[in-house]
Write the structure tokens for this entry.
Amino acid sequence: MKEKTLLKVALICSLLGLLILYLISGNIEIKEKNIEKITLENKDEFVKLRGIVNNVVDTEKVTIMEITQPQQITVVLFKDENKTMPIQQGNEIEIIGKVDEYEGKMEIIADRLRVVK
Amino acid sequence: MFFEFLIAALLGIFVGIFTGLIPGIHINLVSIILVSSSAYLLNFVSLPSLGVFIISMAIAHTFLNVLPAIFLGAPDADTALGVLPGHRLLLKGMGYEAVKLTVLGSLLSLILAILLIPLLIIIVPKIYQNLQPYIGFILLAVVIYMILMEKGLDKKFWAFVVFIMAGILGILVLTMPNLRQPLFPLLSGLFGLSMLIVSLMKKVEIPKQRITDTIKIPKLENLRALIAGTFSGSFVSFFPGLGAAQAAILGSQIMGRLGTYSFLILIGGIDTVNMAVSLVSLYAIDKARNGAVLAIREILTTIDLNTLILFVAAILFVGGIATFLTLYLTKFFIKLIEKVNYSMIAFFVISFITILVFYFSSWLGLLILFVSTGIGIVPNIVNVKRSHSMGCLMLPVILFFVL
């Protein structure tokens, strides 16, 4: 095989990859969800949601928050060195996390949490 | 999101260049660091972007890791069997062709594997379910066949001895507690240092390297190597404990005798396909079969079809770029190797590997390097294939499945 042919194949591959990357990237973003739409069917799915912190319980290893949209859901944030951040009642936060069920109630195990204001 | 993915892929390629070119720096190491800092990184980037970064790094790594294997005799597990044919071509002034053959194998097998992904998604769960109980026996049959293929009773005996010695060493090394990077001294000794020492003893000179445009390989042989690479690279990515090293043994045996050119195509193909198809294993049977995919699973938990397509797109993009990069960097390596006396390079590489082994694995690593180098020289003395030294990884895996 000629080197030019190999490089042409490589170029086509890269361009095709780039095109697919462009087309699929719109479908990848984790869509923001309303708390009311989170059901048992969403268990283990990653969701993104925004809400106001209603109540914070801070322990050594975990922070448990109630957030409202106005519907309410529990968000659990397991602490490690990198995840420590001050969250106060009244903060507006954005969460990306996995939907889980605890004692029959839906909750979010937060992976990423950002204080919006 | 598109630009975030693009930047993640480009950064992955950048890191993949380093992990591919520097012996002993494995993608697993970077993946572990990434997983442990993912909670922090997620403040800036999305979850899938981290996955794109990891898979881009891993694919770029599989293209570039042949350079230290062929030019320096410092392979990792995925390229160990490519050292000898690659070095043989280097000593004929065909180092560039050797790399080009592995790149050809990587890129074309990758395309073939991607085309097969829809089929793989359907058949992987069935293959996994039906073949898992027999995988140890399949590998055992391959090893027996490999030993019996040596000509004469004498060589068969030595092939068996080399396999068992390397196997026992492999078991000891892989079960040693508190040993960092156990594969590095093991494989560097069996395939790298042993070859360099033999070359030094033979007072090998590296001739002027030629850079040719065309490599003539019979189309059928090329196709056989690509099919074998795609098949065996995919096959091993479904099962635990198997990797590119076992796939290379499997692939080279199932397609019968392959020439040096075809064998290098096979080696290049297996490594890249193995990495790409392991994502299908994650999607279809929810199993992570290597460090990079394990890191992706740790970060993403599960992948859906859209995410799989995203990763395949990143693989295609990176595969193309890595082809250009590898060929360009090979020309740079050639200029370097032509300017310096081979004995000096060999001596420098031996010292460099020894220092790295000491850095990663301390005194115990040096002991392993010493013993594995000794075993690695044996095939050269008794004139049997060096692939029997792969017993270091094959025997532990066979015992894991059979016992």
In short: Chain B has 17 helices and no strands. Chain B has one domain: 2-402. Residues 133 and 401 of chain B are 8 Å apart (CA to CA).
